[in-house]
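Here is a protein:
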Amino acid sequence: MNVNQAELSISAVSKKQYPKGGYPEIVFAGRSNVGKSSLINKLCNRNKLARISASPGKTATINFYDIEHKLYFVDLPGYGYAKVSWSERQKWADMINEYLEESPYLATIFLLVDSRHKPTKDDCMMMEWIKSTGLEYRIIATKSDKISKKAAEENRQVIMETLALSDPELVLLFSSKTGAGKEVVWDYIDSIVERSITHDCT
C-alpha cells in the first residue's frame, strides 16, 4: 500500500473509546524499546506519526492510527519494562487483555522481537496467548540492520525454536533504519485487509 494519509485517530484506555469505523485492525505488540513506533513510522513513510520515547515504558494507551481510511494500525503499550511499577504494569495488562478479547475488528497481530536476541519469557507468554486465539499472526524481528545477514538468519532459527514455530515464513526480518523487510510486511498486511473486505461483503 502506498500511504499518503496516516494520522493518530485516538489514544484509548478502555473499549468505550475504541474507534467505530469498522476498519480491519493490524495490531503491533512487543516489549518496551523493541521498536514498535519506529516500525509504524517506517511503514507509513513518516518520521513522527508514532512518538518514539527516549524512555522505555512511557506508552500508557492503546494508540489507533487511521491508515488511508482503510485500516487501523493499533499500537499496544510495551510490556516487560522493569522500572514501571507493578500496579502500572497490571493496569496496562488489563487494558491490553480487554482490547485483545473485546475488539471485533482485530484482523492480525504482529509480535515484535529483537532480531539480535533470544525472545524473552514475556515474549513467549504473548506468543502462547496469540496462538490460543486462533488469529493470524507474524513475528517481526526488528533491528536487523544491527547484525550481519548471517547472524540474522541464525537468530531467526533461535526465534522460531524459542517461540515453538515450525514455519520460517512466520518470522519477518525488518529494519526501521534501512527499510529492509518493509515490502514483505506490507504484502502481508494488504492480503489481510483484502480478505477482511471480502469477508465483510459476503
In short: The first strand starts at residue 6 and ends at 12.
